[in-house]
Automatic annotation (TrEMBL):
Cofactor(s) the record lists: Zn(2+)
Protein's UniProt keywords contain Zinc-finger: no
Biased composition (Low complexity): 166-178
Identification of the protein by name: Glyoxylase, beta-lactamase superfamily II
Organism for this UniProt entry: Halorientalis regularis
Keyword annotations of the record: Hydrolase, Metal-binding, Zinc
One Pfam family hit: Lactamase_B
Annotated Metallo-beta-lactamase domain residues: 14-171
Span list, region Disordered: 163-222
SMART domains: Lactamase_B
GO molecular function terms attached to this record: hydrolase activity; metal ion binding
Residue stretches of biased makeup (Basic and acidic residues): 195-222
């Protein structure tokens, strides 16, 4: 699966919007910058679906433009005029070449979901990375109306519970008695803000949880 950040060159505030290509072309969040449609077209002629992690403005400002251009399905947890598929905790969706579990992760937003597969996490704003507040393992802000640090902490714990761990033998190997093969676990994290992370994603999420549990302001002016 190839994943491209189609808002990477933005000069104005936006989320990271990710285009995943493979068996199924999917855009995770639409971003808030003009030109996102043109950037998508540099990689593909069509997309099958847009999946929203949540509906804050920096994630959906260009949603209509994308849907108008590509006539794609819209997957979202909360109601939206153009939603075609309602997401719920425990659902499974295909992104690129992989099956992703939908994990309901509110706290930063009431409608927030994260998407996790055997190898990859689209974390939206529940866990972010190198976002200017912390350089390894950060989390979405919770100081605005309708947000909750306590609920965010619970969501990060839920996410950790739902993430596959590395080092597990494959069922096929165990059944055949062959040498046990080990899974590396989740190694790719595509967050709504900050940098993409490659490596031990569980460690990044655990670090974000530890910081969130301290209940200290994310930013000095909170």
């Amino acid at each position: 699966m190839d994943v491209y950040n189609v808002t990477a060159d933005a000069e104005t505030f936006t989320c990271n919007a990710y285009l995943a290509l493979g068996e199924r072309a999917v855009l995770v969040d639409a971003g808030a910058v003009d030109g996102v449609v043109d950037e998508i077209r540099t990689h593909t002629r069509d997309i099958d679906a847009v999946i929203l992690t949540h509906q804050h403005g920096d994630h959906v400002a260009q949603l209509d433009a994308v849907l108008d251009e590509f006539d794609a399905e819209l997957y979202a947890y909360a109601p939206h005029d153009r939603r075609t598929v309602e997401l719920d905790d425990g659902d499974q969706v295909m992104i690129g070449d992989e099956a992703f579990d939908v994990v309901y992760t509110p706290g930063h937003a009431d409608d927030h979901v994260s998407l996790v597969s055997e190898t990859t996490l689209f974390s939206g704003d529940v866990v972010v990375h190198d976002d200017g507040a912390f350089d390894y393992g950060s989390f979405g802000r919770t100081d605005m109306a309708g947000q909750s640090r306590d609920r965010l902490i619970e969501s990060i714990r839920d996410l950790l519970d739902r993430m596959p761990e590395g080092g597990r033998a494959s069922d096929a190997s165990a059944a055949s008695g062959a040498e046990r093969s080990e899974s590396a676990g989740v190694e790719h994290m595509y967050a709504g803000h900050g940098d993409t992370f490659e490596g031990d994603v569980r460690d990044v999420v655990e670090t974000a949880l530890e910081r969130a549990e301290k209940r200290e302001p994310k930013y000095p002016d909170e």
